[in-house]
Each structure stands twice: as structure tokens, then as C-alpha cells.
Task: structure prediction
Amino acid sequence: MSDTTAAPEGAYDDLLDRVGRISNVSHAEELLSWDQQVMMPEGGTPARSRQLSALSAVEHDLLTADELGALLDELEARSLDDDQRAVVREVRREQERAVRVPTDLVERISAASSEALTAWREAKEADDFAAFAPHLEELVGLKRRYADHVDPDRDPYEVLFEEYEPCLPLDHAEDVLTDLRDAVVPLVDEIRASDADLATGTFAGTFAAETQEKLMCEALSLLGYPWERGRLDEAPHPFSTGTTYDARITTRYDETDPVGALLSTIHEFGHATYTLGLPDEAYGTPLGEARDLSIHESQSRLWENHVGRSTAFWELFLPRVIEAFPDVGDVSVRDAYEAVNAVDPSNPIRVEADELTYHLHIVLRFEIERDLIRGDLTVEDVPAVWNEKMESYLGLRPETDAEGCLQDVHWSHGAFGYFPTYSLGSVVAAQLFDAAERDLGGLDGRIREGEFDPLHEWLTDRIHRHGKRFETNDLVRQATDEDVSADAFVDYATAKYGELYGL
Result:
């Protein structure tokens, strides 16, 4: 074979070495960010912002190095196997974006995000949007500049959306969000008009955070969380982060709502089990990284909603809840099922939202951040527009900005374009769970018996082990024989909530 078609192992190995260094720097940034949100003392922000800024600059310089570009050029002219071609494709995608963005802008975004995180936390606690507004204004401006550098001829929001979902076009995502909105709004209206009386007071009372934490650890062990590769901590906004060797979970505790902590913990477990299911041998390469956030969210929403909110799970787990909190009294499985699935349009908090109205929370955020980035909305108008949209979609107005436009951490990270992936993840979760049921059969019975290994193994085989080998829609099609669509979720939600509310 001629030199113009053969893929020299030396060049490919050199590529993997360079990509591995970039990956390690990125994971170090994530670990410092985890520490800032979980353990760092309040006074550490000035130093941490500089540390994260420095690491982001190192990562950017490695990604934009001329040598890396030359390696990609060389390998793209060679004959590659499928895995090599996928690695080159994914590195090229990131490298092409990075080379267009100046290092000093990357550093500034990182530093501004670190500073904004602390400002957001303090503003939320004080219910003071004005204190956070300058930081949000700066991040919006910086991210507009970032998008302009990547591609000045395209919609800046579309460019930023691709940071989190690079493989699914924005118009496809918007179609899914529209289908969800068009199905969910009338379903919620029917539920409002229903005279069904669900057992919403099942878990009323006071539940000590220390006891909740022990119960969360028990739930994670039951689901199969490997403690030798993870840990559970508390954070103002639950999240999961890490690698296939160390995937950490955070949750938060409300002493009046133990179910909130449980569902949050199961949600983050879904993220962690995806991270842990990536192939160890591919660590530091695109084949050892999650496909991106739509697929990541599909894993968390599958475990939270299709497992954690199921009757079968509560048949398994309710005795443990009663043992931990005997004051709940003589609770039936049906009572627990109704309590965790009740639809509450009056709830203003996304992370506490039910499975249906959750998507209206997402549409609201998507529309606001899209208009901010496009310059169609000013930062100072965000609270008023937020409240207007909340009233339009959910029939309520938040009493404070802390439970309104300050409730989410994402914009303090400069994460504009992230929110649509939550709803995309939910629709993919429904598709995957349907496909797993078709292939495995009897999932309810397995969940009822605490047999989670078959579902873990199916998800690992169909999703986790592939890393970024396939693009989003191709990965979903291979697992389910369907393109990404809202249809499975709409069918699932219509049947589930029709039974609950007698529609």
C-alpha cells in the first residue's frame, strides 16, 4: 500500500498522545470546578478563577497548536479504520472551533465564569438579581464574541448550542421542543381540569438531612453505584462530573422534601453511570468521552423518570424510606407513586418540577437565553420577561428572583445553549427505555427485584461503550431503530398521566 493511503501508526499514536494531554488538562479543570462548588472555602474565588483561567489557556493552546493541525491534515489523507476516523473527526471538530478563538478570550471567559459563580451564589441567597446582572452582562458579551470568532456569518446562538450538542442541528432541536410544548401544554390543561385527588401529601413532614444522606447512599448502592470510583456530596445545584475512573455525584437536601433529594440523586447517578460505562482503555480519547449532553441527559432522565418514578421502583424502595423515616406512617406503594408523579404547574423551580411541566421550564429558559445571545433581550429585562413567560406557560409568577431567574447555575458558567439538551435527553430516554423493554422484556419485574444489571449492560452496550464513535442521531438510530423524536415521550406521558388523572 502506498504512503498516500496507509495510516502510519506513529502519526496516529502522536495524535492520541496530544489529545490525551488535552483531555487531562480538561479533567483537571473539571475537578477544580467541582471543588469550588462543593468544598472550597468562600474566600478562595480570586485564586481559583486564575487557576481555571490558566488551565483553560493551556488547554486552548494545546488544541490550537500547529503540530496538532498538521497531524490531522496528514491523517485525513490516509486510509483509516472506523475508530481512527471517528477520533480524527471529533478532534478536528474541536480544533477547528478552537483555532478561530483567541487564547486571551478563552482565558477571560474562564475567569469571568469563575467570578460569576460566586456572584450568582451570593445573589441567589440575597434575592438580588442586580448584584448578578453585571456578571451576566459580561458573560453574554464574551460568549457573543466567542460565537463571532467561531463563525461570524451564522446565528450566534446556534454556534453556542453546538458546544453542547454539535451533531444535532438546532432546527431539529427546535422541532422537538415545539412538539413537546404542543403536546405538554394541553395535557397539563387537562390535568388542571381533572378532579383526580392524588396522594400529594404522602411525604409531608420534616426529614433530617443527615438521614436523607444515608438513604441516598443506600439508593445509590442499590442501583449499582461503584463507591470505589465515586462519591456523594452536597452542592447548591446538583451535578455530576468526572471520568470513567472517578465519577462524582452531588445532590441537595430539603428537610421538607425527601423525594426531591432522591430523584436528584438518581438523576445524577444516571450521568455518573454513563461516565463510568465509557471504556477504560479509551480514556483520554474521544472514544472514551460521552457523546455530548443530549445523550448524557438521556441517561440521567431515564434513570430518574423511567426507573425512579416507576411503581416497580417504589415497590422495591418504599420499605427503606419507611425504615429511615417511620413518621411517614402507613404509606402504600400507590400513594408513593402518586406523590412522586403528581403534576404541579404552581411549582416555579425547574429541578423540583414534575416530569411534564419540566419541559415548559426548559422552553422558557431556551427562549430567554436565545434572545439574550441574539441581542433581542437585555439583561436588565430578564427578570420581567422570565416572570411573564412563567405566567404564560405555567400560570404562575415567582415571588422572588431567587426562585425565578436566579434559580439555575448554568448562566453563571456562561453555558448558553445547554438548556435544550435537557428536553432532548428526555425524549431520547423514552426511546431508549422502549427499546430496552423490547430487547430485554420484563423491566418492571427486574426493577421490582432490584436487578439493575441487565439495564446497565444494555445501556453500556448500546450507548456507553461507543463514546463519540457515532454522532447523536446515528447513535440513537442504532440503539432504537428511530431518529431522535418526541413521539415516544409523548406516547409514554399521555398513557402514564392519562391513567394517573383519569383523562
The mean pLDDT is 95.
